[in-house]
Design a protein that fits this description.
The complex is a heterodimer of chains A (101) and B (168). Chain A contains three helices and no strands. Chain A is mostly helical and 101 residues long. The chains are: A mainly alpha (101), B mainly alpha (168).
């Protein structure tokens, strides 16, 4: 029987892998991919809790909002990456060490 | 074959697909491979949503993540590298400390998930949820719904403003 803990473990694994991506990469697009993994893991948690709480749909509603925020984050994040590439010709995060616009 | 067993087999297939392709995203040396592995992760997560009886979310996941965010990420990859360069590599750094930290976090998470006695109100019936979600969004969650729409508008205008070339 597949219970709540199965989903929680999958989501913990996804979260850890996303964190790994954020920690070990210097390419900005790769870091954004890690952030997407983390957001997806949070979503799995919310939907699983929603499923195992007898017809309470709040978890799914929150998942919808997280998807909205993820879309906004991806759009703004990639816009920043593109303008960073235009200014310093690389998207290595270590090279982005000046605040001058 | 026993129906329960079949369900478990399919569930574990999608679980392995999700986590395995997420690992490919993180450890692959090539950015393009990472992006396409991410496609399978999103597919797997959508399948898990379907398993959890969240049909609307599974469809949303496919449309927004696979159709939107993934394409956006691929644009990001393509626009920030010269395509004729073979140098689409992305190295990993600080591997050992990161592995230690991540395994620690994973251990803590799983330990506490297993130890906690989750109060379960029983499983939700597997009925279509789209109508119920729509009704909740228009009744109980109308303020967050409007706030989210404004957030999306601001984010899209902001993104367009940031990448716009300065006109002289």
């Amino acid at each position: 029987m597949i219970g709540l803990s199965h989903y929680l473990v999958i989501s913990a694994a996804l979260f850890s892998l996303g964190m790994m991506g954020v920690l070990t990469r210097k390419n900005a697009v790769n870091v954004l991919m890690g952030v997407e993994l983390i957001l997806n893991s949070a979503n799995i948690n919310l939907v699983a809790f929603s499923k195992f709480s007898a017809g309470n749909l709040s978890g799914q509603i929150f998942a919808v909002f997280i998807i909205v925020v993820a879309a906004a984050e991806a759009a703004v994040g990639l816009a920043i990456v593109l303008s960073m590439y235009r200014i310093i010709k690389t998207i290595n995060l270590d090279r982005a060490d000046t605040l001058k616009g | 074959m026993d129906k329960n067993l079949l369900t478990q087999i399919v569930f574990y297939f999608f679980a392995v697909l999700t986590v395995g392709s997420a690992a490919a995203v993180v450890f692959s040396r090539s950015l393009i491979r990472s992006a396409f592995a991410l496609l399978f992760t999103f597919f797997g997560v959508a399948a898990l949503y379907a398993f959890l009886g969240a049909d609307f979310l599974a469809a949303t996941q496919m449309v927004i993540y696979v159709g939107g965010i993934l394409v956006l990420l691929l644009f990001g990859v393509m626009l920030t590298h010269k395509l004729y360069e073979v140098n689409l590599k992305s190295e990993t750094y600080q591997l050992l400390p990161a592995v230690v930290v991540v395994l620690g976090v994973f251990g803590v998470l799983v330990t506490f998930m297993m130890r906690t006695h989750w109060h379960s109100g029983g499983q939700s019936p597997a009925v279509p949820t789209t109508a119920a979600i729509g009704e909740l969004l228009m009744k109980d969650y109308i303020l967050p719904f409007e706030a989210a729409s404004i957030l999306l508008l601001i984010a899209l205008i902001g993104a367009a403003m940031i990448v716009r070339r300065k006109s002289e």
